[in-house]
Amino acid sequence: MTASSSLPRTYRIKPGKMTAVYIAAGLGLPAALIPLYSEESIPGWVKWLVTWAVLGFVGWIAYAARKLSTTADRQGIRVRGFFRQRRIAWADVQDIRAVPNPSAAMGQASRR
User: Which tens digit of pLDDT belongs to each residue from 77-97?
Assistant: First the structure.
């Protein structure tokens, strides 16, 4: 099997990691809104406006996180982020090397 026959390759966030994003969003949402609703001086329409804005933002983050990816194909490397896609042609790739990850000791499933 040649290297070009295994292309394109796409790397995404694993489903288990996405579950952690959903849990964090679910736990963080009430924590963000409780101070808003405990304040008596804020009008009700402002509370609803902020609630819908926060719900929309958290929903967008959860949706956009599923779309993050890195794809390697014959033309180069494409990195899809939250706001934009970036393409790097193979001719522009100068050097790729494996180096130790200094923060690997902090994460349970982090690669070294």
Answer: 999 998 999 999 988 888 778
Q: How far apart are the first and last CA of the chain?
A: 28
Encode burial over 73-107: b for 16+ CB neighbours within 10 A, e otherwise: eeeebbebeeeeeeeeeeeeeeeeeeeeeeeeeee
pLDDT for res 1: 46
Sign of the alpha-carbon torsion through 97, 98, 102, 107? positive
